[in-house]
Predict the structure.
Amino acid sequence: MNRGRLGAYALWQIRDFTLQRGIAIAIIGALFLLQVRLAVSGFGAAGVDVRMLATELLGPFLLIASIIAINGIISSDRRQGHFRFLFAKPVSMVRYYLQAFAVHGAGVVAATALFLLAFWWMSGAAMPARTVLYSVPAFMLLGGLGFLFSAALRNDWILLAGTVVMTQILRGRYENESGMVATLVNWLLPPLHVFGDMRRTLGMGGMPETSAIVWPIAYGAVAIVAGVVVLRRRAMAG
């Protein structure tokens, strides 16, 4: 593998992310920030806490941004046949897509920082700088699952969105239950439930418990490893 060529591909990956996904993420962010503007201008709920509003909006913003960022990261090249040109030269397919994952993850973190800066500009209320750290475990979990699904399937975003919805439903159903099913739901499904408290803690300037940060990162890392295994074994032309 030519490391220089892989590094050159990073420039193309950054450009493609910005044009194909970054603009869409920016539009989504602007729609969420419109709610902040309405609240600040007096058209929202009376006495609304704009910081709390931003903290709550950050969750769905990052969910949508992560799905946009990871959608088709592998499956699009398989579906459109781009892999024939990408890997006609000696470039490691696994390293190429892991690099793409890193580029897209960095893009989501940057988008989060810009979202918070725009919130500060619009509301005059600055969020703690560490709030941007929320995007790291969030993208690692959602992006890791998306990476696995994209390595295995063509319509990966549907499975990712369905997994998020089903996880929320099952965790809500068995949150206060005991028994084998509740235990399996708690330990096997993605730990999306840790993000609510994580956002609020960071938004108030605190630091979440280490386990709340490590759990989604570790879960996402396992999904990425599984995706690499699938990527190695499944033919791109399949």
Remarks:
- The chain has ten helices and no strands.
- The longest helix spans residues 3-40.
- The chain has a mean pLDDT of 89.
- The radius of gyration is 19 Å.
